[in-house]
Amino acid sequence: MERIEYVRVPKGLENVIVDKSSISVSDPEGELIYRGYEIGDLAENSFFEETAYLILKGKLPNEDELGDFISKLKRERDVPDEIFEIFIKLKGKYLTPIDVQRIGLELLMAYDEKWYSQSYDDLILRAIKIISKLATITANGYRIIFKNKEPIKPRYDLGHSENFLYMLKGEVPDNFSSRIFDITMILYMDHDFNASTFTTRCVGSTLSDIYSAISAGLGALKGPLHGGANEKATEMLLKIKDENDAERYIMETLAKKEKVMGFGHRVYKKLDPRTAVAKKIFAKILEKKPQYLNMYKIMLKFEEVMWRERKIPANVDFWIGPIYYTLDLDIPLYTPLFALSRVVGWAAHYIEQVQENKIIRPKADYVGPRGLNFPYKRNWLSKL
Ligand code: ACO
Prior knowledge:
By secondary structure, the protein is mainly α. The chain has 17 helices and 3 strands. β1 (about 25) and β2 form a beta hairpin. α3 (about 65-75) packs across α6, α7 packs across α8 and α11 (about 230-240) packs across α15. The chain starts with about 25 loop residues before the first strand and ends with a helix.
C-alpha cells in the first residue's frame, strides 16, 4: 500500500491556505477586497443591493441587472404567517435573536420545494430568497418573541436596509440612519475564509443544501470570538465611565490574561480596514449626536492603550457595535445584524464550494490511547 504522508498544520489552521476563492481577500497589512474592489471604496460609494450582487455574481451589475436583482429581492420579502405563529409559541424560551434567525431559516426551507437544488441558477434564486426573507424573520422574530409586538409586513417601496429598519421599529428610518446602517452592511458582507464562512463551506462540501450550510454559519457566527464580539464590546464600553476608567479596565483585564472584546484578529495585525471606515462613520454621528463624544473618546483610549500594551488593533466589531448603539438599536440584535449582511457572503461561498467541490475532511492527530480491552464481554451477535 502506498504510504500516506500526512501534513501537519498549525492549531486553528492559522496561516493555512485551504482552497482557492475569487470572492474576497483580507491581507495582514490592512486590506480587504471584495471581487477586486477595496472595502473603503465600496463602503463610501456602493449600497447593499449593489455590493450583494457583486459578491454573489462576481461582477458589478449594469442598470438592468441591478433593477432585476432589486425587484427579485423585494418579491421575496414576505414570510409565511405560520412561521410567525411558531414564533409566538417561542416567547419566554431560552433563545437569543440569532437562534431565532436559525430557526426561522430552517423553517423557510420547508416552504421551498427546490431547497435541495444545486444548479447555479437555482442557487442564486435560493440566495436571494434567504437574504431577503432573513431580514423579515430577524425584524419580526425580534418584535414577536422579545418585544411582545405584532409583526410588521415588509414595504416594497423601500431599499433592503431601510425596509429592515422599518419592520424592526415600525417607522421609516431617516436617511442618515438608514445610510449608516447600509454602510455597516457592506462592511460586514464578506471576509474570505473566516470561521462562519469556512463552516458554511464545510457543510456545502458534503453537498448538503444551502439552508443547512447557512444555518451552520449562523451557529458559528454566534460565538463571542467571532460575530458575538460586537455585542460583548458594546456591553463592555457601556460600563466604562471615562478615559481613565478605560485605562484601568484594560490594565486589569490584561493582568488577568483575559481578552478585551473587539480587539485582535487572525489576519489583521496592524489595522482592520473596516475600522477606518467605521471611525469616519462615528465622526459623522458625532456631528449630529454629540452626546456620544464621551463614548468616542473612551474608544480611542482603548485603541491607544491596547496598541501601547500589546500592539493589538481594534477589529470591526469594536466600532460597529457602538455605531448600532448610537442608532438606537438593541444590543442583543447586533450579531444578528452582522448575520443579515454576512448571509450574502455565506451564500456566495456555498455556491463557489459546490461548483468546484471536494469534501472537506481533515485528519486528527490522535493522542488518545490504543489497544485497550473492553471489560464487559456481552457477545451480542453470538446471542442473536
Ligand atoms: N485582548 C487581549 N489579548 C489578546 C486579544 C484581546 N482581544 N486578542 C489577542 N490577544 C493576545 C492573545 O492572548 C495572545 O497572546 P499570547 O500570545 O501571549 O498568548 C495573542 O494576542 C494572539 O492571540 P490569539 O487569540 O492566539 O489569536 P487568534 O488569531 O487565535 O484569535 C481572535 C483571534 C479570536 C479574534 C482573538 O484576537 C480574540 O479572541 N479577540 C477578542 C474577541 C473578538 O473581538 N472577536 C472578533 C473578531 S473579528 C470578527 O470575527 C468579525
